[in-house]
Amino acid sequence: MEEDKKDKFLAPENEIRQVTAPDGSIIEVNPLEDYFSQDRPKPYKVRKGPVEDFLNWARAESLWVLGFGTGCGSIEIPPLVTPRFDMYRFGIQMRATPRQSNVFVISGYLSVKTLKRAIRAYEQMPSPKYVVGLGSCTINGGMYYDSYNTINRLDHYLPVDAYIAGCMPRPEALLAGFEGLKKLIKAGKGHKANEYVENLDWYKANQKKIIKDWNMPDYNW
Amino acid sequence: MDYSIEKFLWAFLGLFIILNWGMLMSALMRRIGAKLAGRIGVPLYQPWVDLLKLMSLKTWLSHGVMYYIGPVFRLVGGVGMFLFMPVIFGIEIWSNYSFSGDLILLLYFQSFGMLGMAMGASESGSPHAAIGISRGLSQFAAVEVPMTLAVIAIAIQHQTFSFSEIMAAQQGGIMNWTLFTNPLASIAGMLAMLGAMSHSPFNLVKAPNEIPIGPPTEYHSSFLSVLRTNSAILHVVEAALFMNLFFGGADSWYMYIIKTFFVYFISVFVGMVFPRFKIEDSIRWFLKWPTAIGIIAVIVAAYW
Q1: Residues of B in contact with A100 (CB under 8 A)
Q2: Distance from B125 to chain A by nearest Cα, in Å?
Q3: How many domains does chain A have?
Q4: pLDDT of residue A1
Q5: What is the pLDDT of residues A78-92, one digit of tens each?
Q6: Which of A56, A171, B60, B129 has its CB surrounded by the most CB atoms within 10 Å?
Q7: Is B301 in contact with B153 (CB distance < 8 Å)?
Q8: pLDDT tens digit string along B124-148?
Q9: What is the distance, to the nearest Å, from the Cα of residue B65 to the centroid of all Cα atoms in its chain?
Q10: What part of B 187-246 touches A (C-beta under 8 Å)?
């Protein structure tokens, strides 16, 4: 039964297939195992001392937010780059690629389909990385608490550093949330990425309970 | 050429000054852009903080050897441009490693970093990087045409491929600048500069809202900090290249900073006024007006 499900959702380019090598021999290719790294992530060492404090200050003063709006709350992010709120003066910028960003704003409800993309994007970000849950939907499901298609508690699937409650919180609340995140980072408490890696099995079990078409490697490097 | 340790240390000091000036300049330009939009803009120290943060991020990724070497090639392109161009005219310690044919070497160094980056970024396997590279290289090929024509016109005018001699010929007042002695070449060169600086009408390579950041899509942490270090150096050095060719060079650090600021500001100013071109429009534009003016400049310089 489990096998049937997996085959149904597997993308055609990820299917196990046989390939003829240049020397005529036939090789079996399993793209999910051969093309993607199967390594488990390792927690990074959290250092202490004045140098690390200084680096934490730098991390806090330069928050690069992934430009990925996951729910209706993402409508509150564009005003932040306008003259009225202007987040650049606080060292917050938007980046277009997960590789270059270290803050992930989950803006509102996460549908099952988006959760998969959110996990992929989160795992591709370099550590130390931070997740901000925007809106009540990330805390307890909000007005979508009994929806068949959204998750209720974000911290079962991704480690959340800061929540901004409200439906919807205004851009000022978002800025206040970023300030709170900055305080956490400066105090040396912004290492939830390590927590995610240490409890990877628990997070993965939760994620796989929701995402039925899991056709990606366990950890998206 | 002088290869002593002392010379190297002076060149290194110059590089350090240029790096910091480039970072300050990028913050200044972003603040000017923000003021134009009615915002306050980034703090002046933001580029340094960004650099520190990028260096403090962890990485476990590998895409192969070229992926690591790509940013290094890019940095070599910027540093090489700096090293082989005289910084301050008439002062021996700030002449760096310039020699009689440095102008040709500099044109080569302009493309060197880009080619290295293209190889490194394509190794990362991101489709956005591939799109960015194809756009970048094709636009650069189009930019090179008017730029080279302008350089040839100036070389014919002054009968030399040496920066020091071109700068020496422009001393003694504003009217001796190439801008006034050879306006056609200057126009072609300055239009090519807009493309070389890759600001707004021509920022197709790193178009953040269509192809996420382009070639450096996969570059993060220290790799990205190397790239940003290079872009800080490159912006000043590119501005200095055009300053030396058209605006009489600089005879002191004050002049250097003022002139590079304004030369760079031209491209930022144009970028704030005009929206982005499509790649086919950009190439057509470069091969139309700047190239035509450049050809006329060469003919005028050769037969006047």
Answers
A1: 213, 216, 219-220, 224
A2: 12
A3: 1
A4: 47
A5: 898 889 999 999 989
A6: B129
A7: yes
A8: 888 888 888 888 888 888 999 999 9
A9: 26
A10: 208-209, 212-213, 216-221, 224
